[in-house]
Amino acid sequence: MIQGTITSVYGSDINTDDIIPALYLQQSTDRAYFKAFAFDKFDPEFRTRCQQTSANIIVAGSNFGCGSSREQAVYAIKDNHVVCVLAQSYPDIFYRNSLSNGLVLITLKDTSGFRQGDELRIDLDAGIIHNVTQDTQVAFAMHPDDKRTFQQGGMIGRVRAHLEELLSGA
């Protein structure tokens, strides 16, 4: 179960340069470095809002994470305590980078009913988003392998769980 607060609502075509400006990409190889520059030019208040809660949710229109392939965009979002992004669509490379790093992405046909400040409970197993604030529910579909990977914290978590299983003799 994922629980969190919608702290950012965006439109369509939020690109990776909006998420982490290119000028910061060569400044460090430490993934934690990018947290301080998330949405630096596009939405300077993003980081301040994310500090208000330990479980943030982003809602967006279509094509969230478009543009250049940069894993740092996922780091910048996730390390600001974003537990999930709800959007109408994602480019494949951003989706794969998020899946690898455990940033849960959910695709919805319509995100217009969500508002900043809404409290959500997301049940990945049931495929249900319960908007506690509005007392509504929205169903979603997710590929079973992706669901399992997100639940295990990304590909690294999934590989770790597999290795533990092998080593325990299960």
Automatic annotation (TrEMBL):
Keywords assigned by UniProt, alphabetized: Lyase
CDD domains membership: IPMI_Swivel (cd01577)
Any one GO molecular function term: hydro-lyase activity
Ranges for domain Aconitase A/isopropylmalate dehydratase small subunit swivel: 48-110
InterPro entries hit by this protein: Aconitase/3IPM_dehydase_swvl (IPR015928), AconitaseA/IPMdHydase_ssu_swvl (IPR000573), IPMI_Swivel (IPR033940), LeuD (IPR050075), LeuD_type2/HacB/DmdB (IPR011827)
Pfam families linked to this entry: Aconitase_C
Keyword Ribosomal protein recorded: no
Record bears the keyword Transmembrane helix: no
Source domain of life: Bacteria
PANTHER family: 3-ISOPROPYLMALATE DEHYDRATASE SMALL SUBUNIT 1 (PTHR43345:SF2), 3-ISOPROPYLMALATE DEHYDRATASE SMALL SUBUNIT 2-RELATED-RELATED (PTHR43345)
Family indicated by similarity: Belongs to the LeuD family. LeuD type 2 subfamily.
Classification via NCBIfam families: LEUD_arch (TIGR02087)
Identification of the protein by name: 3-isopropylmalate dehydratase, small subunit
Species the sequence originates in: Vecturithrix granuli
